């Protein structure tokens, strides 16, 4: 998701667009997740996890192919379309939080690689930039194609062991409508809190290129270091939070702690931005 916003200055210059347009490369991925989340969940219920993963990895590969075709400087719109495509619980109940924490940690590890790109694109000409965009798209497409083949060969709908209590509960309550869920005040509050946490974290990462290069002009090394440090800190945090959730299962206190940490983070971020603006 951050592969283009992490090098926003390069994309802006190469495609002759604005930073707002560059931000849309990240927004399109998030929009697709919001729009297709519920339909995908229903698709999994009806057709199983294997068919769902096959469909998802197919569209990932298709999105990578679109990015391959979008390396020309007049095809930024096609790049945005390609960004749309890139994005059942069968574990024991007590392991579910740990699994999600590990998955989130790997997601952040992948996001770390996006901030290696500023160094790779440093002082690149238009021809070199086009070639590097092409190689990145090739890596994405081939990786997604491999995932598709691995899913086709090895993924099964159900494990040999009995499903977790969480899976059983989901199957028995699958007839509940979305309207009932949206009337649940606890669910609404949790969704708002989660949206604030994820939204602030993503907005920080998406606009980091603009913020750092505005202060440290053309310093790609500083941008890469800032991005890697900012995202890497979330890896141990994800694992620690999941371990705490696994042991204590007191989500109300954990959510409160995360909101306080979010407030402190946003306060420090805005304070530093204001200081830099005054100095400028």
TrEMBL record:
<keyword id="KW-1133">Transmembrane helix</keyword>
<dbReference type="InterPro" id="IPR011701">
    <property type="entry name" value="MFS"/>
</dbReference>
<dbReference type="InterPro" id="IPR036259">
    <property type="entry name" value="MFS_trans_sf"/>
</dbReference>
<feature type="transmembrane region" description="Helical">
    <location>
        <begin position="187"/>
        <end position="205"/>
    </location>
</feature>
<dbReference type="GO" id="GO:0022857">
    <property type="term" value="F:transmembrane transporter activity"/>
</dbReference>
<feature type="transmembrane region" description="Helical">
    <location>
        <begin position="98"/>
        <end position="121"/>
    </location>
</feature>
<feature type="transmembrane region" description="Helical">
    <location>
        <begin position="22"/>
        <end position="41"/>
    </location>
</feature>
<feature type="transmembrane region" description="Helical">
    <location>
        <begin position="225"/>
        <end position="245"/>
    </location>
</feature>
<keyword id="KW-0812">Transmembrane</keyword>
<feature type="transmembrane region" description="Helical">
    <location>
        <begin position="53"/>
        <end position="69"/>
    </location>
</feature>
<dbReference type="GO" id="GO:0016020">
    <property type="term" value="C:membrane"/>
</dbReference>
<feature type="transmembrane region" description="Helical">
    <location>
        <begin position="133"/>
        <end position="156"/>
    </location>
</feature>
<protein>
    <submittedName>
        <fullName>Uncharacterized protein</fullName>
    </submittedName>
</protein>
<keyword id="KW-0472">Membrane</keyword>
<dbReference type="Pfam" id="PF07690">
    <property type="entry name" value="MFS_1"/>
</dbReference>
<dbReference type="InterPro" id="IPR049680">
    <property type="entry name" value="FLVCR1-2_SLC49-like"/>
</dbReference>
